[in-house]
Write a structure and sequence with these properties.
Order of helices and strands: HHEEEEEEEE
Strand content: 35-45%
Largest sheet: 5 strands, mixed
Shape: globular
Distance between the termini: 53 Å
Helix content: 10-25%
Radius of gyration: 19 Å
């Protein structure tokens, strides 16, 4: 079967767009989901189910002068959603899937809403991991 030049271009274009669309949906499954914080630096971690599709994660934000807990990234595999708190420099680029709104003021627990995309949610720390939901 021979495909015309125009059909090949449309097919190539469709595949390119599909690939580009799939990249943000991959859940940053590559090198991005790397934990920087130890479990003890974020404790206590409190998870509350806000709705059927949303969890609220509350954690202690470590006080640092050059970095901050910018948000949460995740990857979903089978029936497990693995999340990690992203540590980013206060200036420069920062890659996180769900950016946290940082409110100036006295120290208080960090709060982040995340989608509930699997029956189990595991938080990944630099020194291990722990199931945080259910």
């Amino acid at each position: 079967m021979k495909i015309s030049h125009g059909a090949r271009r449309r097919l190539f274009s469709a595949l390119a767009w599909a690939t580009l669309a799939a990249v943000p949906l991959s859940g940053c499954a590559g090198d991005h989901v790397k934990p920087s914080y130890s479990k003890s630096s974020l404790e206590p971690v409190i998870v509350t189910r806000v709705s059927d599709t949303t969890l609220q994660v509350q954690f202690h934000e470590p006080l640092e002068s050059m970095y901050y807990a910018a948000g949460i990234s995740y990857v979903v595999a089978s029936d497990v959603m693995r999340i990690v708190i992203d540590r980013c420099p206060i200036t420069g680029e920062c890659t996180t899937m769900l950016r946290r709104q940082v409110v100036p003021g006295p120290p208080k627990p960090a709060v982040q809403d995340i989608p509930l995309l699997a029956p189990r949610v595991v938080m990944v720390f630099a020194d291990g991991e722990e199931q945080i939901f259910p």
